[in-house]
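From the shared-data thread, chain only:
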Amino acid sequence: MGSFTRLTYHIVFATKYRKRIIDSEIRQKLYQYIGGTLRANKGHAIEIGGVEDHVHILAGLSPSLAVSEVIRDVKASSSKWLKTECGKSQFEWQKGYGGFSVSFDRVNAVRSYIQNQDLHHKTLSFQEEYIGFLERHGIDFRIEHLFEGEHTG
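Structure, as tokens:
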């Protein structure tokens, strides 16, 4: 018998200090670049979206690579690309990321959520959104370790 897997993840990470630097002119190109990096790491993008200060990725990833390795590559290569190709010489991603498994029957709902980021963030801050994800997924955290350079609460 062969091995069969479907490993789908919702991954979220922000710009350092949540600087609103991912402007509309580069957003789609950035998402395409991230999609290419996922493909180079044996994965595929299902949906990529976000707003000026953070990115959401819904992706199928290979069981042969650790999620942390793939995201490290996505963040490093996209940061370099933003600096060299988009003139964002001071660009940096935050340290770390949030990664949440997504069951097959929830893929369309998560995809829709990512597509509607502009709408969500009219009433919800990134910090509120991120804490909500951690709580819904049963992840223990200390608020003072979540957002570098600031204390929330």
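The radius of gyration is 15 Å.
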